[in-house]
Design goal:
Radius of gyration: 23 Å
Number of domains: 2
Distance between the termini: 51 Å
Structural class: mainly alpha
CATH topology of the largest domain: Sodium/glucose cotransporter
CATH superfamily of the largest domain: Sodium/glucose cotransporter
CATH class of the largest domain: Mainly Alpha
Strand content: under 5%
Shape: globular
Number of helices: 26
Length: 573
């Protein structure tokens, strides 16, 4: 690293800190400002924040590991979430905005009643803020530590503390305002860095022709062959992963941005834009760099020039140091920091929101002023940061953490979807699903009987066990009182046959027209065809498979036109 590179990194850090701290006074005025920017974000800013948050320092390392170890098709591990992403667009973006919650966990108090609902809300506040989000934050900090080790030779403790300090500072003071405003320019810097490195790596590898000559043909496959073991894993991803995860109806990060949008239309547009950018555009710089790395670093170990690379994930930052000249090297390192900081700041803010909004304010100290709650929010941001640092030091694999997160909590996703569309779901449904899913996950990952079971087998076991339990519990426990259900239905208007008994209970009372469930379902199917075709078509064209690329993009164009006509007439006008 030349002094010029360090100056670029330092300027980026100072700019991030300045932007974040600029909003300190505004964020301090209320919890709505601190956690939702006053519910006044335009679609482009909310959507960009979604993309920036899900683009972290671990993402290119994770994709590099997938492509190097398996091939392009292994990206279906995360491409499968196209289906739940578009489900969020056409069903949940408007519903969450109508509900007017501060966090997704707050839905529990609006959808259910009784002591069990209060216990569930408080437990989930702790569950997400101290367990799930800590694991996610540890994953992204671990990636940054690997980058700093590969690039600069820093140890794990130094990397963790130095890379996190600025992010924690502006997250504590400026809250969500600091998060979304820094997200915007951090995403631009992160994408520029990804494209620059992909171009440099491809050029060094001899262009696309050189890459194709160096990699095995199956590495370039977009789908595994039906006769291979990988095909079963692929079926597991597209058949099970996307709807069974705890974020199947949006998830906390996306819901926070839906809830902070100006209105339902802006929430819908933000979520649609996020999904297109997340899959069709953001994928390919990472995949191209990963393919080029196979040509440039065909084996791991001392035979490579310089310090040996110890794992596939570390190849990505190694390319940054080996291939980029002075100046671009600093820009690339700044882009890593940008991707890292946008994700870490979001999860710090949202974790604190869960604790304050869903545990502290409703159950511990109900009638304090806004200043008190904001002060406690800032304290909790620091506490949760300390917990995350400790956990990060004991984690080693990014891909391993990601796959664990998909499995851990799988089986709860169907409950989270159906609570919007089936009146019979109650708090005990969620409680039993979480308990069964957690127990099954621990069993699947610790018991010797499951040691040789493939990942998709473990996932099917966790989902099956959880589903049997929560369905049984739903039917043996009492439903939510009808007045509570009517209040929720009047507020959200979800539509669908699952609410028929509740609609009958209105007995002539005037309510607004509900969501056209069948129309939204058809558009969801169309949107999935559009985004899958666009993602694959873009990749085929970039990799030089022009005939198949034109076919896939033509399908995307046709379905996209149909989708736009529907949206412009029904949603965006």
């Amino acid at each position: 690293m030349h002094i010029i590179d360090w100056v670029i990194v330092a300027l980026y850090m100072l700019l991030s800190l300045a932007i974040g701290l600029y909003f300190t006074r505004r964020a301090s005025s209320s919890l709505s400002e601190f956690f939702l920017s006053g519910r006044n974000l335009p679609w482009w800013l909310a959507g960009t924040s979604m993309v920036a948050t899900t683009f972290s320092s671990d993402t290119p390392l994770y994709v590099t590991g997938l492509v190097r170890e398996h091939g392009i098709y292994e990206n279906w591990q995360w491409w499968s979430f196209i289906f739940s992403g578009m489900l969020s667009v056409f069903f949940f973006a408007r519903l969450w905005r109508r509900l007017g919650v501060l966090t997704d966990v707050e839905l529990i108090s609006l959808r259910y009643s009784g002591r069990e609902a209060s216990v569930l809300r408080g437990f989930k506040a702790l569950y997400f803020s101290f367990i799930i989000h800590t694991i996610i934050k540890a994953q992204v900090i671990l990636a940054m530590a690997k980058i700093m080790d590969a690039a600069l030779g820093w140890g794990k403790w130094e990397s963790i503390i130095i890379s996190s300090a600025v992010t924690i500072a502006y997250s504590v003071f400026s809250g969500y305002w600091g998060v979304v405003t820094t997200d915007f320019f951090q995403f631009i810097i992160a994408m520029i860095g990804a494209v620059v490195l992909a171009a440099a790596a491809m050029g060094k590898a001899g262009g696309m022709a050189g890459i194709k000559a160096a990699v095995a043909p199956e590495t370039l496959d977009f789908f595994p062959s039906p006769g291979e073991a990988a095909f079963m894993a692929f079926l597991g991803y597209i058949a099970l992963s996307w709807w069974s995860k705890y974020s199947s109806d949006g998830g906390g990060v996306i819901v926070q941005r839906m809830a902070s949008s100006k209105n339902e239309k802006e929430s819908f547009a933000a979520t649609f834009y996020f999904n297109v950018a997340n899959y069709a555009l953001r994928t390919w710089p990472w995949v191209i760099a990963a393919l080029a790395s196979i040509a440039l670093y065909p084996a791991l170990g001392p035979q490579n020039v310089g310090r040996p690379i110890l794992d596939h994930e570390a190849v990505y930052p190694r390319m940054m140091m080996d291939l980029l000249p002075t100046g671009l090297k600093g820009l690339m390192l700044a882009s890593f920091f940008a991707a890292f900081m946008s994700t870490l700041s979001t999860y710090l803010n949202l974790s604190s929101a869960y604790f304050i909004n869903d545990l502290y304010r409703p159950f511990i100290k109900k009638d304090a002023g806004e200043r008190h709650y904001i002060f406690v929010s800032r304290v909790m941001t620091l506490v949760l940061s300390a917990v995350t640092v400790y956990v990060t030091y004991n984690v080693t694999s990014i891909v391993g953490v990601f796959k664990f997160l998909i499995a851990f909590g799988s089986g709860t996703g169907l409950v989270y979807i159906l609570r919007w569309f089936w009146w019979r779901i109650n708090a005990w449904s969620e409680i039993s699903a979480m308990a069964a899913s957690t127990g099954a996950s621990i069993l699947a990952y610790t018991h010797p009987a499951f040691a040789d079971m493939p990942y998709y087998g473990k996932l099917a076991f966790i989902i099956g066990a959880s589903t049997v339990v929560w369905v049984a519990v739903t039917f043996i426990t009492k439903p939510v009182p009808m007045e509570k259900l009517k209040e929720f239905y009047r507020r959200t208007l979800p539509g669908g046959a699952g609410w028929a008994p509740v609609r009958k209970a209105f007995k002539g009372e005037e309510i607004d027209e509900p969501t056209n469930f069948s129309g939204a379902f058809f558009q969801w199917i169309t949107s999935c065809v559009f985004l899958v075709s666009l993602t694959i078509g873009m990749g085929k064209l970039l990799l030089g498979f022009y005939l198949s690329g034109v076919i896939w993009t033509s399908v995307a164009l046709f379905s996209g036109i149909r989708l736009w006509r529907w949206m412009s007439g029904k949603v965006l006008r």
